[in-house]
Amino acid sequence: MFFYLSKILWWFAAPSNLLMALILAGALLLFTRWARGGRRLVLSAALGLLVCGVSPLGVWLARPLENRFPLPPEDMPAPTGILVLGGSMDQVTSAARGQPTIGAAPGRLTEAVTLARRFPSARLVFTGGSATLLGEEPADEAGAAEALFRRLGVDPGRITLERESRNTFENAVLTKAIVQPKPGETWLLVTSAWHMPRSVGIFRQAGWQVVAYPTDYETRGRPRELWRPILPVSRGLDLVDRMTREWLGLAAYRLGGRTDTLFPGP
């Protein structure tokens, strides 16, 4: 139920969707006796779209998330395993074209392969099924990721897959049941930097102490990006949408008891 509710509510709560709905509502009011209010609504929502799309609002939302967990030191000891969260593979296109296709967050996969080569004795675990709300994907994301890992030269004997999870909470619970990590083991958690606080909090709450290995940064960490406009507008809107979702996810997961604190840190 939590999975379906979160998907439905987010469709309405996404800033770009909400602002576009307000513009549509305002446009409809133009043909009624509330035309004056409709004009105000259209102008206000259009201004909101402009602010979200051009201003550095998305950067302001992303930087606290991405700066929360630093990368491990270069001389870190070899880990027991490398745990990669799904969200990167486009399983629909992969199945349709017969070729592994990365849809988003490519760093999760490229860094996973880099780490696998750097630590040849570490297990490589990928967790991700299908996150669609309606219907079924032709293949789970883990299968597409496995095909990509094999093409990049990773020994299939090192790869463990979790194919059923639909969100980060299920990533943690279902993968822990498969891997059964032991006390004293070191597991690197590879996911997007902005997604790391919530991910670490979820894994801790599930009883799995992981070491954060953030990737796929959206911000550069430089002062001037805090005031520079973002272009194209589509990138700004996408960044605001994704970062707003992450902050709302932190609050929802904390309220639901799925993370150990509101803003998990090192």
From TrEMBL:
Q: Does the keyword Ribonucleoprotein apply?
A: no
Alphabetically sorted, this entry's keywords are: Membrane, Transmembrane, Transmembrane helix
Q: Pfam families under this entry?
A: DUF218 (PF02698)
- InterPro entries recorded for this chain? Cell_Envelope_Assoc, DUF218, Rossmann-like_a/b/a_fold
Tell me the superkingdom of the source. Bacteria
Picking any one GO biological process from the record gives: Gram-negative-bacterium-type cell wall biogenesis
Q: Does the keyword Kinase apply?
A: no
Q: Where are the transmembrane segments?
A: 12-31, 43-62
CDD domains from the UniProt entry: YdcF-like
Name used for this protein in its record:
YdcF family protein
